[in-house]
Automatic annotation (TrEMBL):
This is Nucleoside hydrolase. Residues 4-313 form the Inosine/uridine-preferring nucleoside hydrolase domain. Pfam families: IU_nuc_hydro. It comes from Knoellia koreensis. One of its GO terms (molecular function) is purine nucleosidase activity.
Length: 318
């Protein structure tokens, strides 16, 4: 199975993603690290442990990471994800403690262990589904972890419209400096990056009707939790279906052929009156002004997901 690590801000759809990564036989979930985003980091830790309990994956280490973005005040998304960050479900919360290491230290240990094997098959796919604060701190503090990373597949950004603002996607908007650092560091360290952003994010959807039997069974297991997360979103948005959200990025790791990607220059807008946190994706086939910084240093071109086989990913998750 493919070794993976998730970095999350659980988060209703992060929970959907954790369930998939914890239980799909093609993946070997090595760790989950937590960051403030949808909810404050302590709530994220509790939610993440709760999801892994439901999946009976208490063996997966969970670590607490950054509480705040690098520069600005946090803007959480509890208006979308509920007061507890995970749908305010009638579900017993985990009382387990997280790993004693900080997220950055846990990530370092897991990635350096993978690097030490010298086996490409043991390298880890890093899947950030949250503001990139932990990952920026990791790559700046321990750049040697690059040897243990197979690729980064992150949920964030958009070539077209945003959601937190008209221009910017939530994860990048929450900590634009961190996102910029991660793209720069990956370019410098030779780490391949895929952006699973808003151009595809909302499209794989599960219907309320399809989860009805799972809700009725009420088994208190992973499938029950998954169904309740979908039901919460349907109710919250008054819709007959809900996106699997962040879980789509995990699908893109399990079945990469389900997305159409283009390798494009991407930069993060750090200023801007209305556009701070926007990912500027250059789809022109001339110019090249985004491929180098003012000092001539090569900057990131990354794989941007521009289309998705939505039915395929919805079925895979279900
Ligand atoms: C992203 O922001 C969060 O609200 C979701 O969990 C997802 O990671 C979507 O913009
Ligand atoms: Ca998330």
């Amino acid at each position: 199975a493919l070794p993976v690590v998730l970095d999350v801000d659980t988060g209703v759809d992060d929970a959907c993603a954790i369930l998939l990564a914890a239980l799909h036989p093609a993946l070997d979930l090595r760790a989950v690290t937590c960051v403030g985003g949808n909810a404050p980091v302590d709530a994220v830790v509790t939610n993440t442990l709760t999801v892994l309990d439901a999946a009976e994956r208490q063996d997966v280490p969970v670590a607490r990471g950054a509480e705040l973005p690098l520069l600005e005040d946090p803007v959480d998304a509890r208006h979308v994800h509920g007061q507890d960050g995970m749908g305010d479900l009638d579900w017993v919360k985990s009382t387990r403690d997280p790993d004693s290491r900080n997220a950055v230290e846990l990530l370092r240990d897991v990635l350096l262990e993978a690097a030490a094997t010298g086996d490409r098959g043991r390298k880890v796919t890093l899947i950030p589904l949250a503001p990139l604060t932990n990952i920026a701190l990791l790559l700046r503090t321990y750049p040697e972890v690059a040897e243990g990373i197979r690729e980064v597949v992150f949920m964030g950004g958009a070539a077209a419209d945003g959601n937190a603002t008209a221009s910017a996607e939530f994860n990048v908007f929450h900590d634009p400096e961190a996102a910029a650092i991660v793209l720069d560091a990956c370019a410098d360290l030779g780490i391949a990056v895929t952006m699973y952003g808003l151009d595809v994010f909302y499209r794989p959807r599960v219907t309320r009707a399809s989860i009805e039997p799972l809700l009725a069974a009420g088994k208190g297991d992973a499938a029950d939790l998954a169904a309740q997360l979908i039901a919460f979103q349907c109710k919250r948005f008054g819709d007959s279906s809900a996106t699997i959200g962040d879980a789509g990025a995990v699908c893109a790791v399990i079945e990469p052929a389900g997305v159409r990607r283009e390798n494009l220059p991407v930069r993060v807008e750090l200023a801007g009156t209305w556009s701070r946190g926007r990912t500027i994706v250059d789809r022109r086939d001339w110019s090249g002004d985004l491929t180098h910084d003012p000092h001539g240093r090569a900057r990131s071109t990354i794989d941007v997901c521009l289309d998705v086989d939505a039915q395929r990913y919805a079925s895979l998750w279900f």
